[in-house]
Amino acid sequence: MDRDRDRDGRARSARPRDGLGRPLPYGAEGVPRQPEGLVRAPGETVREAQRLLDAGMPFHAHEVFEDAWKSGPGRERDLWQGLAQLAVGLTHAARGNATGGARLLRRGAERVAGYAGTGAGSYGIDVGGVAAWARELAARVEVPGAPVPDAAAEAPRLLLSG
C-alpha cells in the first residue's frame, strides 16, 4: 500500500487523530488538525496554544508553538521551542509514557527558563512559572504507580496574568 502524501508529495498520514494526537483508524472521527505553517503574532500564538491546552489537546498546542519557532526571529527560538517541548511532554505523560513525558518536560523547562536570561521579550509568558510547572509534573509522573495525568486538568497557565 502506498503511503499517504500531501499536495507536495511528502509522506503525511491522512489518518484522523484523537485529542492527544494518536492516530485513529481511517474513517474514524478525529479532532481537526492545526493548519501548518501559519504565521501568527506572538500574542495570538499564546492565546491559541492556551485554548488548546485548556481543551486537553497539548499535541495540537505543540503544533502552534512549532509554527512560532519556525517563523519567528532566531532570538525567540528557545522560547517557542521550549514551549513546544513542554506541550509534547504533557502529551506523552497523558498518553501514559511517563519516562518520555518527564524527559521532554524537563528539556522544555530548561530551554524556557534559559530564555528568561536573554533579555528578550516573553510576551507576558510566565517563563519561571511554566518551567516550575513542568519540573513538578515531571517529578510527579515518574513516581512508580502514579496516575496518568489528565491533559486538560494539568494544563499550565502560560501568562503571568492569565
Task: Describe the protein.
- The chain has 162 residues and is mainly alpha-helical.
- Helix content is 48%, strand content 0%.
- Helix 1 packs antiparallel against helix 2, helix 3 (77-94) packs antiparallel against helix 4 (98-115) and helix 4 packs antiparallel against helix 5.
- The mean pLDDT is 91.
Note the main attributes of this structure:
162 residues, mainly alpha, 5 helices, globular
In short:
This protein is mostly helical.
Question: What proportion of the residues is helical, as a percent range?
Answer: 40-55%
Q: Give the N-to-C terminal Cα separation.
A: 48 Å
Order of helices and strands: HHHHH
Average pLDDT reading: 91
Largest sheet: none
- Low-confidence spans: pLDDT under 50, at least 5 residues? none
Structural class: mainly alpha
| Number of helices, counting only DSSP H or I runs of 4 residues or more | 5
From the alpha carbons, calculate the radius of gyration and give it in angstroms: 16 Å
Instruction: Note the beta-strand portion.
Output: under 5%
Strand segment count? 0
Q: Characterize the overall form.
A: globular
